[in-house]
């Protein structure tokens, strides 16, 4: 009886050891995979740009106060640009966060901690990100993504206003997206067209064409 019993216990111990080794092997593999996954998440979520696609559009930004367009002249920015002052606007697909770059100067509009508007060649910092706010009067306001309540704005002379001195209701922070003269994008024609009191009055006074 001792012989079969010994072989039985030896077999039982062998099975137990085998299960233990399998368990530790599975645990070790899971640990490595978890570590790799945490490393992947850490390195791919550090910069939101790595997880999002950008939509790049080119248009002009018409200032309500100056009647001209925003232009980026290197480090200096004003709202005295003539027709043709093109801006490259990078829009994140997951929201209305945008970066605005001059097409010729390749400098971005940024707002520093003092609320000053400056142009910088590198627009990856949060100071160069703005959030679009669509207003009821068909204008658009651009508020800093980093400094809440501070808007991009220009006075009547076209000079930038400090963000700390701006509010959404001020005309200085109201802008309109426009295509350059002589260039019309059929997909965006409605978006870039606004109706003012003057245009409504002109349409009422305009005679209807005679019909055959």
TrEMBL record:
Transmembrane segments: 12-33
SMART domains: FGF
Keyword Amino-acid biosynthesis: no
One matching Pfam family: FGF
InterPro entries assigned: Fibroblast_GF_fam (IPR002209), IL1/FGF (IPR008996)
Listed SUPFAM superfamilies: Cytokine
GO annotation, cellular component aspect: extracellular region
An annotated GO BP: negative regulation of endodermal cell fate specification
Main localization category: secreted
Subcellular location(s) per record: Secreted
Gene Ontology MF term list: growth factor activity
Alphabetical UniProt keywords: Growth factor, Membrane, Secreted, Signal, Transmembrane, Transmembrane helix
Family to which this protein belongs: Belongs to the heparin-binding growth factors family.
Protein known as: Fibroblast growth factor
Organism: Lates calcarifer
Lineage: Eukaryota, Metazoa, Chordata, Craniata, Vertebrata
Gene name for this UniProt entry: fgf24
